[in-house]
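BUG: 3D viewer hangs when loading the predicted structure for this chain

Environment: internal workstation, default settings.
Expected: structure renders.
Actual: progress bar stalls at 90%.

Input used:
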Amino acid sequence: MNILGCQFFTGDDAIAGRYWNNTVIKDCLINSSCNGIRLIGPATRLTIANNLFRGPGEQPHRTSGEKRRTNMLSGIILQPGAWDATRGPLDDVLIANNVMQHVASPVTLWTKPGNTVGNVTVSGLDATGVYRSAFSAESWADAPITNVVLRGVRAEFTGGGKAWLTNQFVKGPGVGTLRPKR
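Structure tokens produced before the viewer hung:
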């Protein structure tokens, strides 16, 4: 599957899916009020290159109701096993020469039980206006994440979070909201 030279202006994840094999996402403009690219299952030989991820979203988030939320979350979020037991590897992933503006986190990676992470390379990333985390990698699976390479990554962190976010109960990833710390 190839997604080449496209423009996305979405009120939800711009590109989402699972079981990607030999997939290239290249030369796209991605504007979202959720995540730019969201992988919720295994993938092998995935290339995400030369894209512009630009927040905030021009379309309000589809389920934010009256709030009409437009902030862009992760530019790229790789979360095999996110919504259900989609078992398999995330391997041979290249994220190269992307530009991101006004995102919560440029790249987020986490995995759940039954999924493994092989080689993931982030090279030539230029992110400005990052307001949560420059990079996040979490293993909630049986094995740690061990083969991630960051090369030529520049992330300009602007912050802007809320104090109440620092006092939260931490649990494994899911699709619900976080519970306050007790």
